[in-house]
Each structure stands twice: as structure tokens, then as C-alpha cells.
């Protein structure tokens, strides 16, 4: 199943499943994208400054509007998830540092598209289903985070096991500070020792050395 633009259908997003073809939705026309994005960002910043809405609700509504504008030819979903992480970090929700929200969304992609289709095709203009879905993703991430932290703590108090479990669940590149946040009772020398072991085992690599070294899982 793939999505593609089709010039014949006037900027429509076409869904192809090798059997049939149909319009997923019609995004904002290209020449209107700059003004639509300006209006979206201005409205978001204004409401956030006035504290008119809870930051979570405002952030999820921003992402929904971004997806409806669909400003890029490709990669809008991936960019929307990066924006989600950024807005959540700014709102004080940092679980995305340790649990992959993108994976949770991928695992629930049927619901993801169902919610968006209701907004796009049924003319409901009701953001509640999308906000509820997004909150569900966030709650699932925190539950998973809680489970693996408890698992690490229950392994006879092994700090090494806790660090390894933390690194296993980190999303993307990471820093020493990310591990320290997840394992506040573990000293930095212990973290370095475990990283050295994992590096020797070929499980992690230091991609930017130095005082603020950046690491990645292999």
C-alpha cells in the first residue's frame, strides 16, 4: 500500500493498494501552504502565550492542522512525529527520549488513519478523536517506560542491568545525560563502564567523542 501525489487529480493524495485506487484526502494547494503555515504557527504561539488551552491539547491540535495542510510532497508523517516530540519536550513530557512514540504510532496505524479519515472525509471538524488518540499514544509510552524501569529496578538492584535496559529503550542517538535522567541513582563512572562493555560487545558506538559525547545503539 502506497501514497502518491497525482497531478491529474489536482494535488490529491492517492491511496494505492495494488487492487484499487482512491483519494485519501485533498491537502491545501501548494500556493496556499506558506500562508496556511504562517497562520497555524501564529495561532499556536498566540494561544500558548495566553495559556488559553492546556499545552498538550494545543500541541496535538497543532499536529492535526499540520497534517491537514500537508506542506511537503513527502515525509509529512515523519516530520509531524518529530514536531510532536519537540512540542512534548517543550511542554515537559520527555518520555519520547526513552520510548519510541513513532513505534507506538506504527503499531496502531489502523486507528491512526481511521481517526484522520473521520476528520478529512466526514466533515466533522472535531479534533477530539485525534486528541484522544494522541493522548493514548502518550499514555502507552509512559506505561511502557514504567514497566521497564520497574523491571530494571527489580533485577536485584543491578545498576548494570538498569543501565543496559535504559540504553535498550532509548530512541535514536543519546547522551550520558539521558541515561542519568533515567537512572538518577547511578554514578557517571558506572555509566561509562557499562558503555565501554557494550561498545566492546558491538552493541553501541560513540559517534561524537568528547565531553558531550553522543552515542548510538547498533
Beta-strand proportion: 5-15%
So, CATH architecture of the largest domain? Orthogonal Bundle
Cα Rg: 21 Å
Main sheet makeup: 3 strands, antiparallel
CATH topology of the largest domain: Fic-like fold
Q: CATH superfamily of the largest domain, please? A: Fido-like domain
What does the model show?
This protein is mainly alpha-helical and 218 residues long. The chain has two domains: 15-149, Fic-like fold (Orthogonal Bundle), CATH 1.10.3290; 157-217, Arc Repressor Mutant, subunit A, CATH 1.10.10.10. Helix content is 58%, strand content 12%. The protein has nine helices and six strands. It has helices at residues 33-50, 55-69, 76-90, 101-107, 109-121, 128-154, 159-169, 176-182, 188-200, and strands at residues 2-6, 12-16, 21-25, 174-175, 204-208, 214-217. Strands 1-2-3 form a three-stranded antiparallel sheet. A three-stranded antiparallel sheet has the order 4-6-5. A hairpin with a 4-residue loop joins strand 2 (12-16) and strand 3 (21-25). The chain is elongated and about 55 Å long. The two termini are 29 Å apart. The model is unreliable at 1-20 (pLDDT under 50).
Amino acid at each position: 500500500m502506497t501514497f502518491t501525489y497525482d497531478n491529474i487529480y489536482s494535488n490529491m493524495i492517492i491511496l494505492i493498494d495494488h487492487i484499487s485506487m482512491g483519494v485519501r484526502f485533498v491537502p491545501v494547494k501548494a500556493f496556499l501552504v506558506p500562508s496556511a503555515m504562517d497562520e497555524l504557527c501564529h495561532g499556536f504561539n498566540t494561544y500558548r502565550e495566553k495559556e488559553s488551552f492546556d499545552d498538550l491539547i494545543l500541541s496535538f491540535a497543532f499536529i492535526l492542522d499540520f497534517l491537514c495542510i500537508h506542506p511537503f510532497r513527502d515525509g509529512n508523517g515523519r516530520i509531524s512525529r518529530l514536531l510532536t516530540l519537540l512540542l512534548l519536550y517543550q511542554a515537559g513530557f520527555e518520555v519520547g527520549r526513552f520510548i519510541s512514540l513513532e513505534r507506538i504510532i506504527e503499531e496502531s496505524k489502523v486507528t491512526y488513519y481511521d481517526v484522520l479519515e473521520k476528520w478529512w472525509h466526514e466533515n466533522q471538524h472535531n479534533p477530539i478523536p485525534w486528541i484522544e488518540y494522541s493522548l493514548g499514544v502518550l499514555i502507552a509510552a509512559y506505561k511502557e517506560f514504567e514497566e521497564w524501569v520497574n523491571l530494571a529496578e527489580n533485577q536485584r538492584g543491578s545498576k548494570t542491568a538498569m543501565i543496559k535496559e535504559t540504553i535498550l529503550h532509548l530512541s535514536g542517538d543519546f547522551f550520558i545525560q539521558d541515561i542519568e535522567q533515567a537512572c538518577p541513582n547511578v554514578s557517571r563512572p558506572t555509566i561509562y563502564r557499562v558503555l565501554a562493555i557494550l561498545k566492546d560487545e558491538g552493541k553501541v558506538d560513540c559517534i561524537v567523542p568528547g565531553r558531550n559525547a553522543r552515542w548510538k545503539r547498533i
